[in-house]
Design goal:
Radius of gyration: 28 Å
Number of helices: 16
Largest sheet: 6 strands, mixed
Helix content: 40-55%
C-alpha cells in the first residue's frame, strides 16, 4: 500500500512567549524513524512531511491549510494511507479520514500493527491482541446505521435495546477479559520458570535498548544463536534466553528483550509487563546504544525513562547497568578512536561492534568482573563419592588449577563468590542433599 508519513511538530510556549519544540527529538530524526516503522510492515512510503503545529486543533490536530495541502499531495501521489507520527484522539482520526478520504493511523496504531506482524509465540500474540483491543475500545464507530436501535422485549411497546456500538463494546470487553485471564496464566508460568532458574542460580544478563540498536546481533555474536537480526525496526519481538559461558567458564543466562521506542504506547507497556519483568529479574543489564545514530542521546533517555517506569531507578541502574556503545564500525576513524578512548575511561561503558566483534572480549571480561562480586579463593579436595559436583563447580566457580590424584580424588584451586562458597560448603558437607537435577547440572 502507498503511504504518506506526516510528522506534526507541536510547539510549546517558553519563557517570554517564545515558541519552542515540545519534543527533544529532531523533526528529521522523527520523520526517518516513522518512515522506518512504516517500511517495517512493507508499506511503500511515497511522501514524508514535517508539519509545524503552533495551535493544535481539538477536532483535527492540524490547521485547515495544512489539511488541504496534504490532501493535494495524497491525490497527486495516489496515496490511500496516512501515518500521523503523533497520538490522535478517535475524533481527530475520524475527521482526518473524512477530510483526506484515506485511511489514517497514528503512531500507536502503527506500532501495534508492527507488533502484530512480529509476534510469533502464543504469549506474544496474546499480549499484542490485548493491547490492540484496549486501543480499539475507544475507537468504535457506528457502521450499522440501519440498525440504529434494536427493540427490547416483545412487540412495539418494549423499551429501546442497546445500540449496535454498545453491543460491539460489550463483545470487545468480553474478549479483553478472556485475554487478561490467559495472560495471568502466562505470568504464573514465567514466575515458575524464574523459580526453577533460581534453584540453579545462574546469573541473568538482560539486553535492553532502543529498537534497531543491534541487540539481536550482539546476542548472536555472544551466544552463537540464530536469532533474527536485520537492519529493521522491531525485527524481533518475542524474548529469547540462552545459556552462555563467560571467559573463565562461569555459566550465565543471556536474555534478549523487545526493543524500546520513544512514546511507547501505554497499552503495550501494560500488555508486555510479563515479558519486561525479565529485565527486573536480571542481575546485570546491558543497555545497547547505536552510537552511529545522531539521535542516540535522546534514544538513551527514552530507554532509561521506560526502565524507570518498570521500577529500576537511577541508583539501582548505576549498580546493575553497563552501557554498550554499539556500531562503532560505522564511525569515521577519528570519531571511532575518540569513542573507544571515552569508553575506556568510563567505569560502566564498553565500546563494541557486534558485526566485526571489536570490543566483545572486553565486554565479556567486564560482565565477568561485575558478576563475580567478592571473590573467595580456596583449594578443595573432592573425594570419589563427590565427583558429581564437578559440573556444578565448573559452572559456578573459576577453576585456576586441577590435580587428579592417584586415589581417584581431585584437588581444585577455586575462585568463587561468597554466596557460591556457602553453597559449595553445603553440598560438600552434611547439609541437605541437592535435588537430582541440581547434581546433574
Amino acid at each position: 500500500m502507498r503511504a504518506t508519513v506526516v510528522v506534526p511538530v507541536l510547539k510549546s510556549r517558553g519563557r517570554g512567549g517564545q515558541t519552542e519544540s515540545a519534543s527533544t527529538r529532531t523533526p528529521e530524526s522523527r520523520l526517518e524513524e516513522a518512515t522506518g516503522l512504516a517500511q517495517a510492515i512493507d508499506l511503500d512510503v511515497v511522501n514524508g512531511s514535517i508539519v509545524p503545529v503552533n495551535d493544535p486543533r481539538p477536532a483535527t490536530l492540524l490547521g485547515t491549510g495544512k489539511i488541504e495541502e496534504i490532501k493535494a499531495l495524497l491525490d497527486e501521489r495516489d496515496s490511500g494511507l496516512v501515518i500521523v507520527d503523533h497520538p490522535l484522539t478517535p475524533v481527530q482520526q475520524r475527521n482526518l479520514e473524512k477530510e483526506w478520504n484515506a485511511k489514517v493511523i497514528d503512531r500507536t496504531g502503527l506500532i501495534l500493527e508492527i507488533f502484530g506482524r512480529r509476534a510469533s509465540t502464543k504469549e506474544g500474540t496474546l499480549q499484542v491482541d490485548l493491547a490492540h483491543l484496549n486501543y480499539q475500545k475507544g475507537r468504535l464507530v457506528r457502521s450499522w446505521t440501519h440498525l440504529e436501535r434494536q427493540r427490547g422485549g416483545g412487540g412495539f411497546m418494549g423499551g429501546p435495546g442497546e445500540t449496535q456500538i454498545e453491543a460491539d463494546r460489550r463483545l470487545l470487553q468480553d474478549r479483553i477479559i478472556k485475554l487478561e485471564r490467559e495472560l495471568e496464566q502466562v505470568v504464573r508460568t514465567r514466575q515458575l520458570h524464574r523459580a526453577k532458574r533460581r534453584k540453579v542460580p545462574h546469573p541473568i544478563v538482560a539486553l535492553v535498548g532502543y529498537t534497531n540498536a543491534g541487540k539481536s546481533t550482539l546476542f548472536n555474536r555472544i551466544t552463537g544463536a540464530g536469532v533474527l537480526a536485520e537492519d529493521m525496526l522491531f525485527a524481533t519481538l518475542d524474548p529469547t534466553l540462552r545459556r552462555m559461558k563467560l571467559p573463565h567458564g562461569r555459566t550465565v543466562i543471556l536474555s534478549d528483550t523487545v526493543g524500546f521506542i520513544s512514546d511507547l504506547p501505554t497499552h503495550l507497556v501494560a500488555a508486555f509487563r510479563a515479558t519486561l519483568e525479565e529485565v527486573l529479574e536480571a542481575d546485570l543489564i546491558l543497555h545497547v546504544r547505536d552510537m552511529s545514530d545522531p539521535d542516540n542521546q535522546a534514544q538513551s533517555s527514552d530507554v532509561m525513562r521506560i526502565l524507570g517506569d518498570l521500577g529500576i531507578d537511577e541508583a539501582e541502574a548505576e549498580k546493575r547497568l553497563i552501557e554498550v556503545w554499539n556500531k562503532i564500525d560505522r564511525l569515521e576513524p577519528e570519531v571511532h578512536d575518540t569513542m573507544v578512548q571515552r569508553a575506556a575511561g568510563a567505569s560502566n561503558v564498553v565500546a563494541v561492534s557486534a558485526v566485526s566483534g571489536e570490543g566483545v572480549d572486553t565486554l565479556m571480561d567486564e560482565i565477568s568482573r561485575r558478576l563475580s562480586g567478592v571473590m573467595t579463593e580456596t583449594t578443595i579436595r573432592l573425594p570419589v563419592d563427590k565427583l558429581a559436583l564437578l559440573p556444578w563447580l565448573y559452572d559456578h566457580a573459576i577453576v585456576d588449577g586441577r590435580e587428579d590424584n592417584e586415589d581417584g580424588s581431585i584437588t581444585l584451586d577455586l575462585r568463587l563468590s561468597e554466596t557460591e562458597a556457602a553453597e559449595l560448603e553445603r553440598r560438600i558437607g552434611n547439609g541437605p542433599k541437592p535435588a537430582k537435577e541440581d547434581w546433574e547440572r
